[in-house]
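Our platform keeps sequence and structure together, in a single record for each protein. Such a record has a labelled line for the sequence and another for the backbone structure tokens. This encoding replaces a full spatial description with a residue-level series of whole-number codes. Below, we set out a record of this kind in full and without editing:
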Amino acid sequence: MSSSFGGIPRSLERGGCHKITKKFPKDELYGVISQLRRASSSVPANIVEGFYRHSTKELINFLFNARGSTGEVIYFLLLSKDLGYIDQERYIKMREKCELLAMSINALINSLNKK
């Protein structure tokens, strides 16, 4: 599989959120760890699913879902920082990555809406 679909990288899942949760307390396995991993893997999964659909309208709907999951990731990163699981520097770096990804998704949605 390509490392991107429509120019959107799978960077949240590849080495980002999944990797940092390995250092979280084990009692968070079914809490923050699960939620953060689920949300971060949902972003590229929705993008890929959208590209395999039959219409631009369906693709756009899945891109909106991906953008929503990006917001979830940002929230769970903030919660992880507040709980002391990640430091401020890591939080800012990952939040910025999420914000750039959300902007890329928005740009793709806008370009598809113009067609």
